[in-house]
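Anyone up for a design puzzle?
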């Protein structure tokens, strides 16, 4: 729903006050086009904003949404593949979706369209939405700063759960223990809170392992189910090198959603108009700039560093600094010969082999890339593989062409926050290997997170 909220301010049915319903994927299994949290808004005149499956089930969802607006009740619809009924709405890819359909503002306590239209997004784009998707509730709250949100002390959240912040402090603390990992991690997931005589709550979410949480005893006969969607500020990519390769990488990185900084020590090179696509252009010595950004807390475990300068006087001090930080990815351009020389220099500078094994050098997947645009694709392909825990390069490592693979195309999106902050699947390299070989890759087990 977060992706659609900005469009509601200009969507004609919402602006004109038409009755609307929202349909949201709350569970997905097998091969499905879109993940949980994906939403579609339907007006009472049948106009649609958004898409759930690219066309497979939209018609049936629109029909169910119109029925929900007529009777005022929410519902849960399941869509899968049916070989027996050729005319049934379903997913030809073989997966299964559960779709929660809810009228907006049609009854007391319902999610209000105006609240979604006027959401107070954070200045950095951070935003979260917590919605009731169980049979007994349909409201929701917008959270403009999910990283700092204190669930245990939120009167809005307490009202959504039918609790009181002070009188039900233990239940609020238990609910916070389940909600805050999703909110602060920028994840989407379901949280189930037990009724007064129920069992422990459980979190099901992208990026958060299934975990039994403290019991949040609630004044309901059935468990309360919350859908949490959280978005953090964009992760940063720091590109070092004002050259043709840097110019090609900037727009490619923007497509992946990074906030991109270009840094080069040479003012005449950094000032070129072709680098204006970057969110910011900095003239500074690369290692000094990175160290200052790290000290100020402006890089973190989601940040990416791409070293394209291909000059030892810049590369070695910069990589020494970068490999001392907990970053999502550090890559450096150069031939295998220059990589070996770079490794020797880094070892002499005191970088330990275990840290060197985290370096992607030569940078990118082996796609046969030659031109700057092709190299940009190679780098971004390796970035996607790294952040999705697919180690790169060979069919055995999981980055073979799709036509040569087997099993589901879409793996579970869930993995732990710690795993997101680590490099995907690198071997420990010995001292000699670190000096004379490119760091190898090994496949790591991909953590499956269950949705129900």
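Challenge accepted. My sequence:
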């Amino acid at each position: 729903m977060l992706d659609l909220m900005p469009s509601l301010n200009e969507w004609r049915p919402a602006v004109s006050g038409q009755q609307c319903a929202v349909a949201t994927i709350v569970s997905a299994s097998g091969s499905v086009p879109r993940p949980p949290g994906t939403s579609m808004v339907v007006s009472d005149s049948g106009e649609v904003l958004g898409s759930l499956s690219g066309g497979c089930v939209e018609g049936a969802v629109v029909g169910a949404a119109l029925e929900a607006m007529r009777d005022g009740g929410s519902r849960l619809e399941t869509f899968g593949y049916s070989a027996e009924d050729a005319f049934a709405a379903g997913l030809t890819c073989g997966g299964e979706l559960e779709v929660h359909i809810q009228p907006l503002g049609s009854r007391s306590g319902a999610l209000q369209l105006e609240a979604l239209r006027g959401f107070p997004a954070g200045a950095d784009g951070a935003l979260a939405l917590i919605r009731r998707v169980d049979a007994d509730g349909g409201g929701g709250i917008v959270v403009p700063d999910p990283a700092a949100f204190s669930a245990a002390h939120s009167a809005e959240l307490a009202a959504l759960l039918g609790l009181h912040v002070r009188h039900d402090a233990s239940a609020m603390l238990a609910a916070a223990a389940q909600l805050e990992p999703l909110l602060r991690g920028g994840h989407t997931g379901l949280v189930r809170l037990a009724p007064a005589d129920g069992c422990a709550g459980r979190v099901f979410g992208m990026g958060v392992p299934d975990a039994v949480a403290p019991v949040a005893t609630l004044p309901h006969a059935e468990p309360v189910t919350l859908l949490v969607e959280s978005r953090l500020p964009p992760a940063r990519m720091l590109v070092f090198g004002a050259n043709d390769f840097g110019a090609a990488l900037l727009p490619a990185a923007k497509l992946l959603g990074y906030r991109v900084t270009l840094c080069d020590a040479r003012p005449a090179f950094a000032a070129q108009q072709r680098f204006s696509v970057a969110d910011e252009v900095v003239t500074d010595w690369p290692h000094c700039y990175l160290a200052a950004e790290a000290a100020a807390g402006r890089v973190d475990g989601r940040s990416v560093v791409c070293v394209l300068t291909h000059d030892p006087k810049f590369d070695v001090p910069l990589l020494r600094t970068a490999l001392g930080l907990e970053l999502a990815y550090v890559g450096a351009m150069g031939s295998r010969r220059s990589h070996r020389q770079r490794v020797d220099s880094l070892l002499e500078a005191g970088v330990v082999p275990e840290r060197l094994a985290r370096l992607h050098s030569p940078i990118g997947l082996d796609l046969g890339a030659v031109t700057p645009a092709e190299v940009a694709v190679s780098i971004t392909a390796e970035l996607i593989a790294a952040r999705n825990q697919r180690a790169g390069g060979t069919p055995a490592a999981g980055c073979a062409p799709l036509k040569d693979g087997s099993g589901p195309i879409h793996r579970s999106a869930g993995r732990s926050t710690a795993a997101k902050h680590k490099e995907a699947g690198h071997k420990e390299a010995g001292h000699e290997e670190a000096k004379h070989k490119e760091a190898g890759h090994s496949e790591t087990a991909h953590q499956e997170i269950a949705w129900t």
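A detail worth pointing out: The first strand starts at residue 20 and ends at 29.
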